[in-house]
Amino acid sequence: MKPIAANLLCASCRENYWALIRQLGHVQLPALSSIMLKQAHIGATGHAPSRGSAPMPIDTRAQALITDSEAWLAEQAGKINARYSNLPWDKAWKKITANKHTILSMSTAADDYTALEHISRRNETALTPEEAMVIIGTCPQCGHQATSTPQADEWTCPHCKWQGGVQAIKATRDNKLWQLEYTGKPVEVARYLSKMDIHCTSDQIRQWLTRGKLHATPTKHKGEYVFNLGEITAMLDCHN
Ligand SMILES: [Zn+2]
Ligand SMILES: [Zn+2]
């Protein structure tokens, strides 16, 4: 029997891969370019970047992301036809989208897909507004607060450049939740937890309170309690 080629993509990977390609040229690169132009403009007029600008939500340079994205497109276009490897990114992208079958059945497709996934995630992080970011924990090396998009599975510290998996950072954070208290109403603690990508509803919390499942202490303010965050996440774990 012939072994299945390691680089063959299954149907769902092919679909995801194609969606990432479309998104790269259709959404991400134009958005990154406009951010870069704004930054260039701010630099030229001599304003401090903190005033009147639309700063990148995290410390990532739009130009570096654009360069990586363009290099990926040039490489793929060059595999379709060597002459295409010097095209500007938008033309290279058009050649790629016009050669769907060739791109998806390329012998290097699995590796190209992996490389694009990485590029796409970094772009997505840079393009996600700060309020949509979640706090995943802290950098194990320098203690800097770690925020990322909810989908990310890798994190790079903007401060010390430490790199690691999001799940491991979250696990460390979750172990420390037992030491953390939050004072507020059920709706407030639910909102606070959602910033950490931990999702429960205020109804759930109220139910647990009524049933005596949480050892939350009421404060002198109506409807307000001192919650132990570890206790809430433990309740969530056994109800999911
Ligand atoms: Zn697959
Ligand atoms: Zn760090």
Walkthrough of the structure:
The chain is mainly α. 53% of the residues lie in helices and 10% in strands. The protein contains 9 helices and 7 strands; from the N terminus they run αααααββββαβααββα. Mean pLDDT is 86; it is low at 42-59. A 3-stranded antiparallel sheet has the order 5-7-6. It has a two-stranded antiparallel sheet with strand order 1-2. It folds into 3 domains: 11-127, no CATH class; 134-176, no CATH class; 180-239. The chain starts with 10 loop residues before the first helix and ends with a helix. The chain is elongated and about 75 Å long. The longest helix is centred in the N-terminal third of the chain and has 35 residues, at 11-45. The structure holds zinc ion (2 copies). Residues 139, 141-142, 144, 157, 159-160, 162 line the site of one zinc ion.
